[in-house]
Amino acid sequence: MAINKSKVAIGFIVAGALTAVFGAVLLVVGPAVMKDQIIKNTVIDPRNDLSYTMWKDVPVPFYMSVYFFHILNPKEILNGEKPMVEERGPYVYRKRIQKENITFHPNNTVSYLEYRTYFFEPSMSVGNESDILTIPNMLVLGASVMLEKLPYPVRVIISTTFKAFKEGPFLTKTVEELMWGYESKLVEFLNQYLPGTLPTTGKFGLFSEFNNSNTGLFTVFTGKDDIRKVHGVDSWNGLTELSYWQTPECNMINGTAGQLWPPFMTKETTLSFYSPDACRSMELVYQRSGVMKGIPLYRFVAPTTLFANGTVYPPNEGFCPCRQSGLLNVSSCRHNSPVFISHPHFFNADPVLLDYVNGLHPNEDKHGLFIDVHPQTGVPLNVSIRLQLNLYMKRVSGITETGKISEVVMPMLWFEERGYIDGPVLKTFHTSLVVLPAVMEYMQYGFIALGLVMVVVAAMVYNKVKVSNREMLKDTHEHQTQEKYVLNNPEK
How much is the pTM? Predict the structure, then answer.
């Protein structure tokens, strides 16, 4: 049976056109399908195995690196000389994060307590927890500033009390004691006779409140009714606003809890989160785009206005009373102790702060904070939060422990909390968010290209068949004409 090439060519033209149309449909529908899948997997829902597990137990390893400012000249400081410090560290702790008491509510929110536990990592540290360091004694120098407005005789009694409990202006302790607490007769006395004076009822340490503790009761949106609200904080400890600060704007609880953000970010998006440790909401801004192991990212950094004082940046007036720009006064949420938060080494702060202390060398690469986020999902890929703890100290008459100390915001330590996606989590993330979308994109254009090629080739074949058929008809017609002529003219 002879094959009709024209019909075959027409069939291929139709098939090619349908293939191209299918590719075009995928081009339109594909992104919508991917967006729908992202929304489905971003919602906080126990049925979303991977994303829910990431949210609940945070499988990414987190580490806290602590750097102390060891005081080199404590005696000279008491005589009014400029402090000299030497950075010691890092002392690295693995941070385990786990959410408990998870409760879903009818209004598309979920509440939880997030517990954190720290484990010392000697192999990652420079030194050991047994290292001995000297830093300011917050119990003495902090309390002296807090009590400087009391009558002079009362300040003398306070100074006598410090002497009775053998508390001096500086502490020389091991790293472990400074971090997690040490025995103090003064602390025991205050907890027994003046309960509530100190933030802790046990040993006194700079991070004693952090270990084996939770960050408060967070209630966040699940995103089920509006994906733009997912992970956003609805309330913290039952509060929808704070009471630490002077203005409603500064008391607002904005953004997420600082671990995940809503998907579909743009370069105009800001990264907002509430930090219980800093007692305020913070906002990071887009800096640049990048790629981490094949995954696209946006890097968000702290704007120079984050810790600016009210004079430099009027909206921050509510965080005052302020000192030099670059310092956040957290005394209102730290039992009125004269404690300030800043970037490490006073990076992005008023340069005058560096004139009061020797041994500081601010550097953006070492001391700036950043969060790298996958913009399509709002999942952080690489995080580095760096903050410094400072104590405001000065001479207070009547309290001889303060000697002739010059007025100074004294750096005590700075720490970096960092984590990044790696291992099986990164592989799954890369497959789901890079490989599969790329395959779908190639399929879309592949179908369109294949369809167009089929149409063009089939059209060429069809045209060739048509031309061939016309030539055959022409030859047949000429042959028949010649035969008739011969029959009609036999003599010729």
Answer: 0.85
